[in-house]
């Protein structure tokens, strides 16, 4: 089943939204080209990496991350790690 069909079928189930389906495709199905445009960590990572003034919305995320295809899942993982590293650096800076 392709990604769009899977997304449409699973979001028909009450309580399952787009973010949940994206996480399922990333971590359970190990799909290589998933961009969770609604994930705050990925959005903040893209904002930080590309030095955007505002948090990118879904359409802007799609446009910016187009160049990551066909490995947007890997790019998303790196955005999470970027935000995790920034948080650790901020925490360490506050200790000193």
Automatic annotation (TrEMBL):
<dbReference type="GO" id="GO:0032993">
    <property type="term" value="C:protein-DNA complex"/>
</dbReference>
<dbReference type="GO" id="GO:0006285">
    <property type="term" value="P:base-excision repair, AP site formation"/>
</dbReference>
<dbReference type="InterPro" id="IPR003265">
    <property type="entry name" value="HhH-GPD_domain"/>
</dbReference>
<dbReference type="InterPro" id="IPR051912">
    <property type="entry name" value="Alkylbase_DNA_Glycosylase/TA"/>
</dbReference>
<keyword id="KW-0234">DNA repair</keyword>
<protein>
    <recommendedName>
        <fullName>HhH-GPD domain-containing protein</fullName>
    </recommendedName>
</protein>
<keyword id="KW-0227">DNA damage</keyword>
<dbReference type="InterPro" id="IPR011257">
    <property type="entry name" value="DNA_glycosylase"/>
</dbReference>
<dbReference type="GO" id="GO:0043916">
    <property type="term" value="F:DNA-7-methylguanine glycosylase activity"/>
</dbReference>
<dbReference type="GO" id="GO:0032131">
    <property type="term" value="F:alkylated DNA binding"/>
</dbReference>
<dbReference type="GO" id="GO:0008725">
    <property type="term" value="F:DNA-3-methyladenine glycosylase activity"/>
</dbReference>
<dbReference type="GO" id="GO:0006307">
    <property type="term" value="P:DNA alkylation repair"/>
</dbReference>
<dbReference type="GO" id="GO:0005634">
    <property type="term" value="C:nucleus"/>
</dbReference>
């Amino acid at each position: 089943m392709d990604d769009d069909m899977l997304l449409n079928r699973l979001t028909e189930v009450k309580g399952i939204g787009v973010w949940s389906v994206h996480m399922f495709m990333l971590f359970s199905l190990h799909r290589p080209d998933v961009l969770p445009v609604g994930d705050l960590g990925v959005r903040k990572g893209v904002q930080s990496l590309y030095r955007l003034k505002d948090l990118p919305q879904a359409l802007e995320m799609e446009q910016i991350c187009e160049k990551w295809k066909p490995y947007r899942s890997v790019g998303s993982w790196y955005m999470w790690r970027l935000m995790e590293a920034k948080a650790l650096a901020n925490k360490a800076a506050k200790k000193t």
